[in-house]
Specification:
Number of strands: 89
Pfam family, one: Beta-prop_RSE1_1st
Strand content: 35-45%
Oligomer: single chain
Helix content: under 10%
InterPro entries: Beta-prop_RSE1/DDB1/CPSF1_1st, RSE1/DDB1/CFT1, WD40/YVTN_repeat-like_dom_sf
Protein name: Mono-functional DNA-alkylating methyl methanesulfonate N-term-domain-containing protein
Shape: globular
């Protein structure tokens, strides 16, 4: 006996025939007791880490022509990545390339090659001052073969390991831009901080690199002309001709090349400032191009003593005149001349003394941090020079020099409202300078500097560092918490429901630019038009106004409940007006519009009452349905679809539904009626496929059907033309995690990429091929409206889904094999509409969105028409996903943040003017709801008691749920640097509009400690907190209304994090890592001191910890503690709770690119990922409810942590070990292997602490480049790869696989599963 059943195979649900004997046999074997891990043995598991949000902190901003002279490119360089963006004629940046596979930190960077603006240059050279950037073909020079186009400049990166990497861009065989790299190894691997200093001479023929002391090296470079010739014949590029090192005695404080005298271009001048015995000297080396560097640097020069006031110059700025330079010191600005003959001459320069601005953070006067030389015509620099000089608090001065008096004058430009770091530069754009101001605290800015006109803000440079703390809106804080603070139970992941994703908020910036940043990821869509019509509408269309010939550029038709409206939009989006009756003759505005189509043949509008046709001759004709259909009865039209002049409408008379079709042909007097089909059920949606097949969604008896009929069909829908979608979905998709057993009616239908996509009223998106349903995914709980537009500048359709008031962009998937799902990592992204003038604003709710043809010249964005309540928006959707963070200003420096589920707000510790206080922020509006009160007078005050002390600092924030009998109190815990443990009470005060205000006051406090209170945690009857190196247990005395200490414990170093687990206290100390202490039994406990139970066997400079599940989420004794340290390490510790006195065991260790400052858990995955990402392929749930484990770093980047069982760890680590030897995946740090038979790539658990770590960023490169087949080209590797795949989940996913392609397809699916976005 056999029957059909649904089984989960290969990552998807399939229908199989199962014999009853097999089930009986399987059940009989499953009666054996499951092997349990010994409670005294550490679990075996691995850790996969990957970067989910890259940092946008900038170290350098360099204008560089990496493609051709025509392209105004700029390089944004961080610690580990390079982003190349192009400055457009509209002043906006668009990203064109990114590289982050360097394998080492970027220590320094500069531009190699020259680019001059010459007055006599022609358009082909692209360097004439009169060349307008909007007149340049964006593809000019990029479609040429590599033999033709060589850029005028390259980017030089000096890595922390000492290697020098030269980069430029070219267009690859696939049409995409790619980096061309050439690496020059460090001359000495034992150097300390090579590239600490970097300088390039004005001719770009020599580069000097210096360590912090004792050593520098000069590189002689090949000329750009010779490199271009080598590139033209596909020869290997060798930018470095020779290398000459030189030792010096002392600290190398500055290194810079000076400009030669006019007419002496071969003269090279290298300047060093060396500090020895607390005195600085200026040393110069001179030579001519081509001289033997071994002779030039043969001996160490003594140099000349620097004046006392210029001993420690912050900046050395070489001038193009007189071989002079400007020395910028904290005390004085001086110009140095006579650098080559005799002792140098320093002349002090008087400059305007501007007081510190509100962006200044330090205690001393603000310092000059950066300078930039603007582009000018070549003759200008022969006798003159000019620079922009920037101060850290936003002050910029323009300095001019000439050949007669060195410094001619200085002009105060303006005070820019941002902090300015050394990432500061100037670009040339349409006769004006464009200043780019990078910031170390908060966002930077882009400003246009037009001549004799006010400065113009073009945009901001995103930055949310420094980031020291973050929080999620997850109601749970631990991995196995029984219930939330509001009493909601934690359900195991198999029983959980689809839920709204948790949000992530982090502290960002300092001083006036401090903020709480909400982390969001997806496609940024800047709002170009925001118009409030005043009345709600459900759909909109945008078309060119050519068919009317009026002054408007575009028309927008709005469909409302009883009528339609027409808006006239000019080209610049200013003065949008509603059309008058005289301007709306080409439309029917008396009834709701159901469908519209615009083409070269004219405009077709279908409303509930009329069909309106406007031809190319601008003549408009109107037709009633009864005239088209020739019906005498009443016809009520409910829906319509148009494609290439073919029209289908659904109409009902009484309870009977019909689908009518007709064709509108240019030149004919009336539409051609095709036919009518009666439908058994309610038609809920209508569409036309590319072959003009009519697709109709039908709802009948609680079931969903899809009907297909030809355009000319007459009669009744045949049973074979109607498919039961409700039944088909149950056969291919797992039941909804919300417990729903069915899907809602079809709300929308579109055709794209050879598939039919259905959007349901219950939030599902169903993908069909023919009559087969490939997948059904949940996008939300409200109706999923799908739109499809085929844009003029791309062959790919633009598919958008609006659901749950969000907008999602669907993309074509790249299939790896027909038997397996294609990769899903990049096929859907949430679209975030952003108001560039208000970065704190929430995105507007989206009810409907459709891509429109609006700006064909902007191929880097897609215009989208959005319906948002009573508003119509036009947004410009970018194509490259990335962070779209939202910043909530707090008016100070935020240092701590938590999310209070009880108060439904963010609680942040903020330092304003050096005084600590609290802010209670509404996550929706960013409003500070807090109102501090004096406990005695109940009146509002500036600070509650215990806070507001100058120089004090809040070290910790937390919530405390205190329970006594049947009464519960909720408090906020605040511990400070000044030795105070403050318990804060809160109450809500309702108001007419908006969320309630939060009144808060000091309820209790313990003060007088002579050391800081580093951490605190509450339990039901008391508090535990660490003062200095002492941990205190306090209980609440309700009679005396104070905290009473009943136990203490001395640690080896301060504990910055405390946690209760399994009756023990976990204390994470700054020098001794994790210490587990026997906790309390109550105030009557006879023991007055805690007892150490377990300790980390390794000494770590620990920062933070989080406890996660082990191999069995239901085992409270098998948990793992993740510990982050200051050396960029993360360790996984298993605590042997049942063996007191035994040290913890290190299960795994990981070395990350940057230190983790905080761990948090959160269920952050988008709704469409939640049902698809249940534990499989050997992934272990990190918490009982399968939440994500996230970690944040000081630079604002975010890491994701995933636990692995041994089988999947072995497979992923095997791939990583091979990738470590591959130049494609690790171009600069790979270990070349000539003979793999003598090199083992087999994962080993002997040294498992480090090898149990898997680098997800490296695996992501393997996935994106489809590199597995090339990595496993050696036969033995491929054989072992198949064996490891067979070992995943005991061969569950490889059952029935035999072909090589099938195994690779499965492997790509596994990589994609582990590397999908989590935000």
């Amino acid at each position: 006996m056999s029957f059909y059943t649904n089984v989960f195979r290969g990552g998807q649900w399939t229908t199989e025939t199962v014999d009853i004997k097999d089930i009986v046999k399987a059940n009989s074997g499953s009666q054996e007791p499951k092997k349990q891990r010994s409670p005294n043995k550490a679990p075996q598991l691995g850790l996969l880490t990957r970067t989910v949000v890259e940092s946008h902190a900038l170290n350098f901003i360099l204008p560089v022509r990496l493609r051709s002279p025509q392209h105004n490119d700029v390089a944004f360089i961080g610690d580990h990545d390079v982003r190349i963006q192009e400055l457009g004629s509209d002043g906006r940046l668009r990203e064109i390339a990114r590289k982050s596979d360097f394998g080492s930190r970027i220590r320094n960077a500069c531009v190699v090659g020259t680019f001059d603006i010459r007055e006599d240059a022609d358009g082909d050279g692209g360097t004439a001052q009169s060349l307008k950037m909007e007149d340049v073909d964006p593809e000019a020079g990029l479609t040429d073969t590599p033999n033709v186009q060589f850029p005028p400049q390259m980017l030089l990166l000096v890595m922390e390991c000492g290697d020098s990497i030269f980069l430029f861009l070219r267009r690859g065989s696939d049409g995409c831009l790619e980096f061309v790299a050439s690496c020059c190894p460090s001359p000495r691997k034992q150097l300390v901080y090579p590239g600490f200093h970097l300088a390039i001479d004005p001719s770009s023929r020599y580069v000097a690199l210096a360590c912090a002391q004792d050593f520098f090296v000069v590189y002689e470079l090949e000329s750009m002309e010779n490199l271009g010739q080598a590139y033209a014949i596909n020869d290997s590029l060798k930018p470095v001709r020779s290398i000459r090192p030189r030792t010096v005695r002392g600290v190398i404080y500055q290194i810079q090349f000076l400009y030669p005298r006019p007419g002496d271009d071969r003269h090279i001048i290298l300047l060093l400032i060396i500090v020895r015995n607390n005195r600085s000297s200026m040393v110069t080396y001179e030579w001519n191009t081509g001289d033997d560097l071994s002779m030039v640097l043969a001996e160490e020069k003594r140099g000349h003593r620097m004046p006392v006031e210029n001993q420690m110059p912050i900046l050395i700025i070489p001038l193009t005149v007189k071989s002079a330079f400007i020395a910028i010191s904290p005390e004085q600005v001086s110009v140095c001349t006579e650098t080559l003959h005799g002792p140098p001459y320093f002349e002090a320069v008087e400059m305007q003394d501007k007081p510190p601005t509100r962006n200044h953070h330090g205690r001393g006067p603000p310092l000059w941090t950066a300078w930039a030389r603007p582009f000018r015509l070549s003759p200008y620099f022969k006798t003159r020079d000019c620079i922009y000089l920037a101060r850290e608090d936003g002050v910029v001065i323009f300095i001019e020099a000439d050949s007669e008096s060195a410094l001619d004058r200085s002009t105060f430009m303006d005070t820019f409202d941002s902090n300015i770091s050394k990432a500061f530069t100037c670009l040339f754009d349409q006769y004006t300078d464009v200043l780019m101001l990078g910031s170390e605290s908060g966002p930077g800015a882009i400003w246009k500097v037009p001549a004799r006109q006010p400065l113009e803000l073009l945009g901001t440079l995103p930055n949310w560092s420094p980031t020291v703390d973050f929080a999620t809106t997850d109601e749970f804080s631990t991995w196995n918490q029984p219930s939330s603070s509001l009493g909601n139970p934690m359900k195991p992941w198999g029983e959980g429901k689809i839920r709204k994703p948790d949000r992530v908020f982090a502290t960002s910036g300092n001083g006036a630019k401090g903020s709480i940043t909400e982390y969001r990821y997806g496609l940024k869509a800047e709002i170009a038009l925001d118009l409030d019509y005043g009345t709600e509408f459900k759909q909109a269309w945008l078309f060119p106004a050519e068919h009317l010939g009026n002054n408007a550029e575009h028309h927008v038709v709005l469909s409302m409940a009883t009528c339609s409206a027409l808006l006239l939009i000019p080209e610049d989006f200013s003065q949008v007006q509603e059309a008058k009756a005289a301007d709306a003759t080409a439309y029917d505005l008396s009834a709701p519009t159901l469908a519209m189509e615009y083409s070269d043949d004219g405009l077709i509008q279908v409303t509930k009452e009329w069909v309106v046709v406007t031809g190319p001759d601008k003549n408009t004709r109107r037709f009633r349905y009864r005239d088209i259909i020739s019906s005498d009865g009443e016809i009520v039209v409910s829906d319509a679809a148009i494609l290439d002049g073919r029209v289908a409408v659904s109409a009902y008379s009484g309870t009977d539904f019909h689908i009518h079709t007709f064709i509108i042909t240019p030149g004919q007097d009336a539409p051609t009626y095709c036919g009518s089909v009666s439908v058994d059920g309610d038609v809920t949606s209508l569409s036309l496929a590319p072959d003009y097949t009519v697709l109709a969604g039908i709802w009948k008896d609680g079931q969903v059907f899809l009907a297909k009929t030809l355009l000319q069909t007459v009669g009744h829908c045949r049973p074979q033309d109607v498919q039961n979608i409700s039944q088909a979905v149950l056969e291919v998709a797992p039941p909804s995690t919300n417990g729903d057993t069915g899907i809602g009616a079809i709300a929308s239908i579109i055709s794209a990429w050879g598939f039919v996509l259905l959007g349901t009223r219950s939030g599902e998106v169903i993908r069909m091929s023919g009559t087969s349903i490939i997948e059904c995914e949940k996008f939300g709980v409200t109706a999923a409206h799908i739109t499809c537009s085929r844009m003029g500048h791309t062959l790919e359709p633009v598919v958008l889904v609006s659901c749950d008031r969000n907008l999602i962009h669907l993309r074509r998937r790249r299939a790896c094999h027909a038997l397996f799902d294609s990769t899903r990592s990049n096929d859907r992204w949430q679209v975030w509409p952003v108001d560039a003038s208000n970065l704190a604003a929430l995105p507007p709710p989206v009810e409907y969105g459709i891509a429109v043809n609006l700006s064909p010249e902007k191929d880097y964005v897609t215009p989208v028409l959005v319906v948002s309540g009573t508003k119509v928006l036009i947004v410009e959707m970018q194509h490259q996903p990335g962070p779209v963070n939202r910043q909530l200003p707090v008016g100070g420096t935020p240092t701590k943040v938590i999310y209070s589920e009880h108060l439904q707000c963010l609680v942040a510790a903020v330092h304003r003017e050096g005084k600590p206080t609290l802010a209670f922020l509404d996550p929706e509006t960013g409003e500070d709801l807090g109102r501090p009160l004096d406990k005695k007078t109940n009146k509002e005050v500036e600070f509650i008691s215990g806070l507001g002390k100058a120089g004090d600092r809040i070290f910790g924030l937390g919530e405390w749920k205190f329970v006594k009998g049947s009464t519960t109190w909720r408090y906020i815990l605040v511990n400070t640097k000044g030795g105070r443990m403050i318990v804060v009470s809160t109450s809500k005060e309702a108001r007419d509009r908006g969320p309630p205000l939060i009144r808060y006051w000091m309820q209790f406090q313990k003060k007088g400690f002579d050391r800081p209170v580093y951490s605190a945690i509450g339990f039901e009857s008391g508090l535990i907190y660490c003062v200095g190196q002492t941990v205190y247990w306090d209980a609440m005395d309700l009679t005396e209304k104070r905290l009473v200490t009943f136990k203490k414990h001395e640690l080896g170093s301060p504990a910055t994090s405390l946690r209760l687990s399994n009756g023990k206290l976990m204390a994470l100390t700054t020098r001794d890592s994790l210490e587990v202490i026997d906790s309390y039994t109550g105030p009557d406990d006879a023991q007055s001191a805690g007892t150490q139970s377990h300790i980390d066997p390794q000494t770590r400079n620990a920062i933070h910890m989080i406890e996660v599940a082990g191999t069995q989420p239901d085992d409270p004794w098998g948990s793992i503690v993740l510990v982050a340290d200051r050396e960029c390490g993360v360790g996984g510790l298993w605590v042997p709770y049942k063996t007191p006195g035994r040290e913890c065991e290190v299960v795994f260790s990981a070395e990350l690119p940057r230190s983790i400052r905080r761990f948090r858990r959160g269920r952050t995955r988008p709704i469409w990922e939640q049902a698809q990402h249940k534990p499989m392929y050997g992934r272990l749930a990190s918490t009982l409810d399968d939440a994500e484990i996230l970690g944040i770093s000081l630079d604002g980047s975010m890491q994701h942590f995933t636990l692995l069982n041994v089988d999947i760890w072995r497979l992923l680590r095997f791939i990583q070990n091979i990738a470590l030897t591959n130049e494609e995946i690790n171009p600069f740090t790979h270990e070349p292997v000539d003979d793999y038979s003598r090199y083992s790539v087999e994962p080993r658990k002997e040294a498992r602490e480090m090898l149990m770590h898997v680098d997800g960023d490296m695996l992501l490169r393997c996935l994106e480049r489809r590199a597995l087949e090339r990595l496993l080209s050696w036969a033995d590797h491929e054989k072992r790869f198949v064996e490891l795949l067979d070992g995943v989940e005991n061969g569950e996913y490889t059952a029935g696989l035999s072909r090589r392609e099938e195994y690779y397809g499965l492997a790509y699916n596994i990589l994609d599963y582990f590397l999908r976005p989590v935000l």
